[in-house]
């Protein structure tokens, strides 16, 4: 791919543009918000100049409800040879192609399963999609060359392509993305009127559970509107489990030992099912959470501490599969949780300890 235009230079569009630019593609940027477009340009994501000839690929990174209209508009102007998008829902935009008289042959739907709760170009990162699934939803009309061009985009962003039909995609992400967003929002909403004394004793667990609740409400409203039925189905099942666990928690205080035992079993089963479900989210091909163990290192709040601990792990020769940091500004020290292969954890912990770090696993 030699040239591309990204339409919508928010968090995702700017990330795509940065990844393509880094790979030597000449990227052109468009946004209805000129500040967003200028910011993306200043970040090195591409140029605001109109391309002189059709680009190889146009990537629409605007909210889902605008995809079909924007697609028809840019197709009419002959902007590109091939078109794709990154919207979080696929069946709606596919359906709207017809009413907007968009050309289905030169378009393939797309959705990278990577993102951020932040909006706008400043949240863009060239490495956002690395190692993440990127769904492509070719229709019966999509030309092979167009699908191939989108596959090239996925490869340049270092993501992993997954081909699905639009409806199966929407059903799948109802479970893996859209319902989780609402669950996070529901929990975060409990905090709105909570006493300050309770908020003050929040740790990393609450931050993990509520991070995505900070996402742009307008964008999520659009996404949920387009996938409402499938999300409602997941939440129906969730509500049934929730009812069960609430009943069990109340029964734990019951005077009846049989009811107490049954309730304890119900709670235990649910917690175990949670661990099993969580273990199914693979970190990278061939590595599930069950294969990983955490080594926790205390780091002082001093310049270069994180870099030094990473360098120490590198010298020991252990690969860090994932990392979590628990730290608040003003705290004298932080905790870094290094997720490494389970088999490597004891030795890593020992060697870090020998090197002067306070480490445990
Ligand atoms: N945020 C995520 O985590 C995430 C992840 C994967 C995919 N997506 C999808 O990516 C798309 C963009 O999301 P985002 O998070 O980057 O949002 P964002 O709010 O950061 O950016 C959207 C940008 O689109 C621009 N825009 C809106 N309408 C436009 C139009 N008609 N023409 C040109 N520009 C227009 C806005 O001005 C804004 O700059 C959405 O379809 C979303 O569903 C989001
Ligand atoms: O990591 C996040 O912030 C996200 O919410 C990203 C996330 C998700 O994983 O659910 C959200 C919506 C997108 O369509 C794709 C990815």
Describe this structure as you would to a colleague.
The structure is a single chain. With 361 residues, this protein is α/β, with parallel strands linked by helices. It folds into 3 domains: 3-165, NAD(P)-binding Rossmann-like Domain (Rossmann fold, 3-Layer(aba) Sandwich), CATH 3.40.50.720; 239-280; 287-360, 2-Layer Sandwich (Alpha-Beta Plaits), CATH 3.30.70. Helix content is 47%, strand content 17%. It is built from 13 helices and 13 strands. Helix 4 (91-99) links the parallel strand 4 (83-85) and strand 5 (107-112). The chain is globular and about 70 Å long. It starts with a strand and ends with a strand. The protein binds nicotinamide-adenine-dinucleotide and prephenic acid. Nicotinamide-adenine-dinucleotide is lined by residues 7-13, 30-33, 36, 61-64, 66, 70, 86-88, 112, 115-116, 119-120, 216, 219, 223.
What is the fold's blueprint, element by element?
Elements: E1 3-7, H1 11-22, E2 26-30, H2 34-42, E3 57-60, H3 67-76, E4 83-85, H4 91-99, E5 107-112, E6 133-137, H5 144-156, E7 160-163, H6 166-189, H7 196-200, H8 204-210, H9 217-226, H10 228-251, H11 257-279, E8 282-284, E9 287-288, E10 292-300, H12 305-316, E11 322-326, E12 333-341, H13 345-354, E13 358-360
Parallel strand pairs: 1-2, 1-3, 3-4, 4-5, 6-7
Antiparallel strand pairs: 5-6, 8-9, 10-12, 10-13, 11-12
The structure holds nicotinamide-adenine-dinucleotide and prephenic acid.
Bound molecules: nicotinamide-adenine-dinucleotide, prephenic acid
Helix content percent band: 40-55%
Strands in their spatial order, largest beta sheet: 2-1-3-4-5-6-7
* CATH-defined architecture of the largest domain: 3-Layer(aba) Sandwich
The overall pLDDT, averaged over residues, is: 94
Assembly classification = single chain
Q: Which stretches are poorly predicted, pLDDT < 50 over at least 5 residues?
A: none
Please report the number of helical segments.
Answer: 13
Give the CATH level 1 class of the largest domain. Alpha Beta
CATH H level of the largest domain: which superfamily?
NAD(P)-binding Rossmann-like Domain
């Amino acid at each position: 791919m030699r040239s591309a235009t990204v339409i919508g230079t928010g968090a995702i569009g700017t990330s795509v543009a940065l990844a393509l630019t880094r790979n030597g593609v000449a990227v052109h940027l468009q946004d209805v918000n000129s500040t967003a477009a200028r910011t993306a340009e200043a970040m090195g994501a591409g140029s605001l100049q109109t391309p002189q000839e059709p680009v190889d690929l146009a990537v629409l990174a605007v909210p889902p409800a605008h995809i079909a209209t924007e697609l028809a508009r840019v197709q009419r102007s002959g902007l590109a040879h091939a078109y794709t998008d990154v919207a979080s829902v696929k069946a709606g935009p596919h359906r709207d192609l017809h009413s907007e008289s968009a050309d289905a042959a030169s378009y393939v739907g797309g959705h990278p399963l990577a993102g951020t709760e932040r909006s706008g170009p400043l949240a863009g990162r060239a490495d956002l999609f690395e190692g993440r699934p990127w769904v492509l939803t070719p229709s019966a009309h999509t030309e092979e060359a167009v699908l191939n061009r989108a596959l090239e985009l996925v490869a340049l962003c270092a993501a992993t392509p997954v081909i699905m039909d639009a409806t199966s995609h929407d059903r799948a992400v109802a479970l893996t993305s859209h319902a989780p967003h609402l669950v996070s929002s529901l929990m975060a909403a409990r905090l709105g009127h909570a006493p300050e004394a309770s908020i003050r004793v929040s740790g990393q667990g609450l931050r993990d559970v509520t991070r995505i609740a900070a996402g742009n409400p307008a964008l999520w409203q659009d996404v949920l509107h387009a996938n409402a039925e499938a999300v409602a189905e997941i939440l129906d099942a969730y509500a049934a489990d929730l009812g069960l666990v609430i009943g069990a928690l109340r029964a734990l205080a019951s005077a009846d030992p049989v009811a107490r035992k049954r309730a304890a079993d119900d709670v235990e089963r649910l917690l175990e099912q949670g661990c099993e479900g969580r273990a199914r989210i693979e970190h990278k091909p061939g590595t599930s959470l069950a294969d990983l163990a955490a080594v926790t290192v205390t780091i002082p709040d001093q310049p270069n501490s994180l870099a030094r601990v990473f360098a120490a792990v590198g010298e020991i020769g252990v690969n860090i599969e994932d990392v979590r940091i628990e730290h608040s500004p003003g705290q004298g020290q932080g905790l870094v949780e290094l997720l490494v292969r389970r088999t490597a954890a004891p030795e890593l912990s020992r060697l870090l300890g020998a090197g002067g770090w306070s480490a445990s696993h």
